[in-house]
């Protein structure tokens, strides 16, 4: 049990939690930075969390929901106010409606997370600032302290697992709800390098090829919100397959961390997907997280059945070996 103390100060309207772990500070930080890891301990065991968005940079946002044993959901959000990589971050934490937006009928609070070395391991100090004594008492009555104790009891198992989330595992795929899929991979390179590799046409032609034997015949990159992009591929002589192209619009952009685009395959009817990509620095490189929202579960499952994940892994491996290692 890593939790060492929980103290409440009714005069300053704060609750401070101190916990210590038998791992380096960077390992503990990475567990909070990686959505695959934080969702294993953010909610108590009977209410596990699912993060549909997790952007650990100043101005970024996280959205998550916790699912109860009867299928009931409680949603929340973080707005990142400050981030000092590897050391601290501060968020506005609140309850959310079903669409992920703030539930203004419920209280929000400010939370500071401080990561420090402690002996042979690390210490995490979390301080929550409440707006009023009534809101503090309301959240305590809702079981905030008990839920925190139960949730933090799970962190040890995550941070001492040095294999499941390390670089070298290829693309991980997780289904989120009925219409989303999350793809994650650690890429050995900096956030800036990975961002550049996604936006430089000449670099894209070197790695975004899918299976061997294909070439990119057109690369039109969207740089500003509202711009459209078009990527086209053609099989080399002797390789089976028909030329195809993907196109869409850039909806959001926060270089070098996050961008959101729509995506459609030319010549195929049907609604576009919404692709949300986030780049997060970790000790082993850059965690690329891609959350794709499909029109429905059938569309998602049929696209995944085409071998999409394998093609993504081939391209990301080529990005490491052909672009970032040179």
Output the CATH homologous superfamily of the largest domain. START domain
Described by the principal axes of the CA atoms, the overall outline is globular
Percent of residues in helices comes to 10-25%
Q: Assign the structural class, choosing from mainly alpha, mainly beta, alpha/beta, alpha+beta, or little secondary structure.
A: alpha+beta
Which second-level CATH architecture of the largest domain applies? 2-Layer Sandwich
Please tell me the overall pLDDT.
93
- Give the helix tally: 9
**What is the strand content?**
35-45%
Essential attributes:
326 residues, alpha+beta, Alpha-D-Glucose-1,6-Bisphosphate, Chain A, domain 4, eight-stranded antiparallel β-sheet, globular, START-like_dom_sf, Activator of Hsp90 ATPase homologue 1/2-like C-terminal domain-containing protein
